[in-house]
Every structure is written in C-alpha cells, then in structure tokens.
Specification:
single chain; 94 residues; mainly alpha; elongated
C-alpha cells in the first residue's frame, strides 16, 4: 500500500516521559502520609493503578498502607465534608 493512501496517518506528536509517582528513595509505609495522600481521591477512595501510573507491586503496597492508616485512624475511611457543605448552602439560617 502506498504511503500517500494510508487511512490512518502516523501522528507526529512527541511524547514527554512523565516522572514516576514514587521515587526510589520514597518508602511506602502507613506513616508516610505525604506519599499516601497523593493516591486517595477527594472522597477518600483509593485511586486506580491507571490513574496513579504505578506498577502492580507498588499499587498493592500503597493499598495495604492506606488500609493500615485507616485502621489506625490516621486516615478517614470516607471523606464526607463536601457533601455536608453542599447541604448547608441550600438551607436558610433560622
């Protein structure tokens, strides 16, 4: 097939390699709140591996660390603050 008649031309975009979310010096631990908080959504849910760009082993370790932190009350199980704020705005103050 001739190059001029291709159905899907190759894109000429250049891709910039993203930095890994976990550096080699970072230790995945339930006490490392700075690291763990990057992998939790605003609602308090654990983000997926595709969103985090983690390896399978790293995702497992992050998940275990988050669950340990929740059990030890370092992290909330669910973050409901946003829901309460929305409900308060709609009500009048009397």
């Amino acid at each position: 097939m001739d190059k001029s008649k291709r159905l899907f031309p190759k894109s000429k975009r250049s891709f910039r390699r993203r930095l890994p979310p976990i550096q080699s010096g970072d230790r995945i631990d339930y006490r490392n709140m700075r690291l763990i908080s990057r992998f939790i959504s605003e609602q308090g849910k654990i983000l997926s591996r595709r969103v985090n760009r983690l390896s399978l082993k790293q995702q497992r370790l992050i998940t275990i660390a988050i669950k340990q932190a929740r059990i030890l009350s370092l992290l909330p199980f669910v973050n409901n603050e946003k829901q309460f704020e929305k409900k308060r705005v709609g009500h009048s103050n009397y």
